[in-house]
Amino acid sequence: MKKLILSVALVGATTLAFGQKKVVRDAEKGFKSGDLSAALTAIDAAATNPETSGDPATFVLKAQIQTKMFGADSSNTMETLKVGNSALATFGKAMEMAGGDKGSATGKAVFADELPGIPDNLRPYSVNTLKNLSFDKAIDRYNSEDLEMAYEFFNLAGEIDKTDSTIHYNAGFLANDLGRFEDAKRHFNLLLELPEYNKLNAYYFMVQILSTEEKNPEAALDLVTKARDQYPDDKVLAEYEIQLLLQLNRMDQAMAQIKEALANDPNNPGLWLRSGYLKEQSGDVDGGLADYKKSVEIDPEFYQGNYYTGALLLEISTKMLNSLNDLSDAEWEKQSPIIGAKADENYKEAIKYFEKASALQPENTDVMIILYQINTRLKNTAEAEKYNQKLIQLLGPNWMDN
After folding, report:
1. Which CATH architecture has domain 164-266?
2. What's the whole-model pTM score?
3. For the segment 305-323, what is each residue's pLDDT rounded down to a tens digit?
């Protein structure tokens, strides 16, 4: 009797195992035929049964089914993304069960190469297929101006391949554009770890995020210093370094960097502007004015150069006129006409720089107000009225009261 009971039990166990293996075969059949919903139902049953749930091949097949479903969904929405994320997680589970061995049968199936242009029926539907499908979906969403989903699909592709510079640059670029700065930093940092990759653009983005969005100029300067070690001749990095040193009030370092940068790039108006600013701040007003003028000589269309030159000429005149207040009455009578005439010469010179600045930014009312005030002082009645009318048109008849 005991032998009979044992025999019946063995038959039952064999039948059960055969049944579960049939479920896996049904899943394979659905996967190949395209009946993916039925295939997923079958493989989910196998993945929860003790007889087949311990076999990593079960989860490889499930991931392949999910990957095929991901590719077949052309809506490319968050629901599509969920399927892709699930496929990646299932591939990960299969590899975990295989001890992470890429050389095993499981590893070879998970990481099977996908040849370009291969027909769908020959695609391995490996994790590399999942990456390529996600990249294609990202491009589709980008071309449709759905930048949020474009980023999500690039991000999924990047989760699969940490070394694909095209994927991570696109993901970082979009994340930055969307204001997702932590995500952008994560992708750009991955690019900075790639040994043969030209990292300049990644450095540019990272410096801007650190200095502007995170308001952390110290960290930005540290990164620029690291970047300049790798790219010592890059002019953009040199300018970033100067800007950050100015922001951190490290004037001596900034001046040294400007001199070095000007030696390599003497026709850069922005560098001459910064040199002038540093000289002005250090008390060398004449040197600052000369450098501001130099920036405009190099590029007459340089708005900042024109504005800073005009502004410094006005400041020089103001200080000259204020100096009269310290004189005795007798000295005031003597010096006032002389100093006043010198101040007016600066005002006249300033006009041409502010007029150029106004031409470059014709809607800038601040510059118009300055021109109105200078022309009023110099008794250029017609010119002053011209700017008054422009300001009335732009700011209203009571603009002087604002």
Report:
1. Alpha Horseshoe (1.25)
2. 0.70
3. 999 999 999 999 988 888 8
